[in-house]
Every structure is written in structure tokens, then in C-alpha cells.
Amino acid sequence: MPSASASSGAAAPPDYAAAREGLAHRARAGVVSVEGPERFDFLQGQVTQDVRGLAPGESRPAAGLTPKGKLLYIGRLVGEAERVLLLLPEDAVPAVLAHLTKYAAFQKAAVLDATSEYVRVALYGPASASFPLPEGGVRLPPEGEVAAEILAPASARAAILARLAEAGSLPVSEETAEVLRVEAGRPRLFRDADESNLPDEVGLQEAISVTKGCYVGQEVVARMRTYGRVNRRLVGFRFPEGAVASGAVFPDAEKPRLELARVTSSVVSPRFGPIGLGFAFRDVAEGAALSRPEGAGRTALVCGLPFA
Q1: Minimal CB count within 10 Å: which of 30, 73, 132, 234?
Q2: Whole-prediction pTM value?
Q3: How confident is the model at residue 255 (pLDDT cuts 50, 70, 90)?
Q4: 3-state SS of the chain: helix, strand, coil percent to 5?
């Protein structure tokens, strides 16, 4: 079996190797709590996922949309006995709180920032399957590059970190976390996905229920799936001539005003070399080689996700 760095020729950082072959971890933050007797009815009308029957400890991917069907946030719902948690990127919490609070005023539901009440730890690597749960904690299913996530009361933070140290787990740096995320093809809110995107453009099919009742943005999602298709889609890019910066655009050589592709994330992977995420026009096939205008940059090869 080739080593983690075989493709690029560079030595893989220790945290990257641990995330691929052993055990590594990274702290997460961002928890919104929805409480009250009408919490399920309230969320049912707000998120793309079916909330009915969400059991304590159960997790479901979900998203929130504008009335025009564009993305507001991406997260995970987690059931508890007296509340439903919405796990989010930390920088999304203020906007999501403001948005949901505005609508909760019309129902018997309260929306609170519960970030300080919980500890969230993403686990990477095959050894994560045997990592013990703390008392009161739940193990959430894989999410892209993350093998599992531990969600527990904040009081368990010290014990979790101590157990991770005893198990030889390495903390994952921001840089390595980005590389692993891009390799897995998981879009990052505010970088690869924002209010300009429809959920199907970003590959969020698992977060969308096709059987539930009305929710904000549902008409647009349903109409798109019934009568049309998205004009662009999230793809991977390989950069064989060297890294291409985020924000780079690849126009149509015959119609310069037509954007064939745009890079939204760019990293250098120990396994794959320079790669990225971004959007390609619907008619750009997987395997296509795109070039920027003469003298402006390098080539991008369009590929499927995750990278392999």
C-alpha cells in the first residue's frame, strides 16, 4: 500500500498521517438549541430535512433556505429529550440565530445559542471507531473526511481530551483540516456554498427530504427537480501545472463572458498534489481540461468527488 505522501513526493505532516492511518481529532463549535412544545413543527417548516420522529441521539443532515431556494446554512440536526440541536459552523451561529428567532416568535418554540453547553470533537482515522464515548455523550455518523463526531456536555471536555491524549491522538491543524475536507469533497459554508447557491448545486441531496410537507424554499427545490436541472455543480479540480488560487475563473475560449468553472477552495494534498473544489458549468464533462486566458494561469482538470 503506498504511503500517504506517495503521490506528491512530499512528506505528509504527522497530523495528516494520523488522520489517514490512525487517530486524530479537531475541536468544533457551533450549537443552536430549539426548545418548546412546538419545536418539531417549527423546524419542520424551516429546514429541508424531515424532523418528524427524530429520536434522542439521532442525527440527520439539514439545510436552511431562502424563499428563493438559496442556501442560508448547512448543518446537522441532533435529537435530545427536551430539545433539538442544530450543529453548525461556529461563524454561522449569529446569522442562523437571528433568522430562526424571527420566525419562532409565531410558535411555541425558543431558539438559543447553546454552544457553551456542549463539546464537539471531530474524530479522524480508522482508530476512531474504538474511541470510547464519555458519559452523556453521543457518537455522530461520518461526515465527509470526519470519521465520527463526539457530542457531549461541556463538563466532559477535559476527560475527552485526556482520553484522546492517552490514545495517542494528534490534534489536526487548520491547514490539514482544509486539505482533508477538500480531498473528501465536502463544501464549506461561506467558502464553497452561500446564498448564491441552490442546494442541488452543492450536492446536498441527503439533506433534503422528498416526502415532507412545506418548508421555506421547497417550491423552488421541487420545481427544479421536476422540470429542470441546475446550471452548475460542485466538482473537484486537479492542477497538474501547479496550484490555482481560490477565486480563479476559467472562461469559455469562444465566449469569454461565459464562465465554465470557478475555483472556491485550493490546497496542496500530500496524496494528490495541488487540488481544489469549485463549480463547473453543467455541460463541462468530468475529465475536461480547462485553461485560463493566455498568460493568466494554469490548467484545471475537472474530476469527481471525493478525490481518488
Answers
A1: 132
A2: 0.93
A3: confident
A4: 25, 30, 45
Cα–Cα distances (Å) from 112 to 5, 49, 74, in that order, read 44, 20, 17
pLDDT in tens, 183-192: 999 999 999 9
In a domain, 37, yes or no: yes
Tell me which amino acid residue 121 is: V
Tens digits of residue pLDDT in 98-112: 999 999 988 999 999
Q: What is the CB neighbour count within 10 angstroms for residue 88?
A: 23
Q: Is the Cβ–Cβ distance between 218 and 49 less than 8 Å?
A: no
Count structural domains, the chain: 1
Q: What is the end-to-end Cα distance of the chain in Å, rounded?
A: 14
Distance CA 29, CA 110 (A): 20
3-state secondary structure 158-208: HHHHHHHHHCCCEECCHHHHHHHHHHHCCCCECCCECCCCCHHHHCCHHHC
Q: Considering the domain boundaries, does residue 60 fall inside one?
A: yes
* Residue 237 counted as domain residue: no
Nearest CA among 24, 32, 118, 108 for reference residue 75? 32
Q: Is the preceding peptide bond at 37 cis, omega within 30 degrees of 0?
A: no
Range of the domain at 118: 24-168
168, containing H or E segment? none
Is 298 within 8 Å of 242 (Cβ atoms)? yes
Q: How many CB atoms lie within 10 A of CB 2?
A: 7
Q: Does residue 307 form part of some domain?
A: no
Q: Are 154 and 119 in contact (CB under 8 A)?
A: yes
